UniProtKB/TrEMBL annotation:
Coiled coil: none annotated. InterPro entries: LytR-like (IPR046947), LytTR_DNA-bd_dom (IPR007492). SMART domains: LytTR (SM00850). It comes from Herbidospora galbida. Pfam families: LytTR. This is LytTR family transcriptional regulator.
Length: 161
């Protein structure tokens, strides 16, 4: 559709596009509904970012530690658990990759593989070897699935620009 904002565009960009289209088509009276929608989107965006900043409780040796999402290099599926890898080591959390991906959507995490979610801030290199994409995250080298290679490259490039 012509004049459509790009997927994942900032709410104000989307609102500008919507307002322009409404005025161009003689529907300026619908701007109130569009403004209400924008307000809802901004509130959702704020709540997602707030949730992304929340610590994750992990059990370790009879103690509970709280891990900040920004400290996590990557998350890896391990059956019914997810292993969080940080500079300090690995921690198992009883959650699903889908739940973690949704919870940390606003924190800069990228799905690199169906079993791996990486923190873009900790990616130091994207390289190709034998036709496969690999990420250097912290001290670990992680494979990127063919299905996710394009999105990983685009999101890392956009983040660095």
């Amino acid at each position: 559709m012509r004049g459509r904002p790009p997927a994942g565009a900032a709410p104000l960009t989307v609102m500008g596009t919507v307002a322009g289209a409404l005025v161009a088509h003689g529907r300026a009276h619908d701007l109130r509904n569009a403004a209400r929608w924008l307000s809802d989107q901004l509130e959702l965006d704020h709540l997602r970012k707030k949730a992304a900043q929340e610590s994750i409780p992990v059990e370790l040796g009879g103690r509970t530690r709280f891990i900040d999402p920004g400290a996590v290099w990557f998350a890896e599926a391990r059956g019914d658990y997810v292993r969080l890898r940080t500079a300090e080591g690995g921690y198992l959390v009883r959650t699903s990759m889908a739940a973690l991906e949704q919870r940390w959507a606003g924190a800069g995490f990228i799905r690199a593989h169906r079993s791996t979610l990486v923190n873009a801030r900790h990616v130091s290199e994207l390289r190709f070897a034998d036709g496969r994409a690999l990420l250097l995250v912290g001290t670990e080298t992680l494979p990127v699935s063919r299905r996710h290679t394009r999105e990983v490259r685009e999101r890392l490039t956009a983040r660095r620009a």
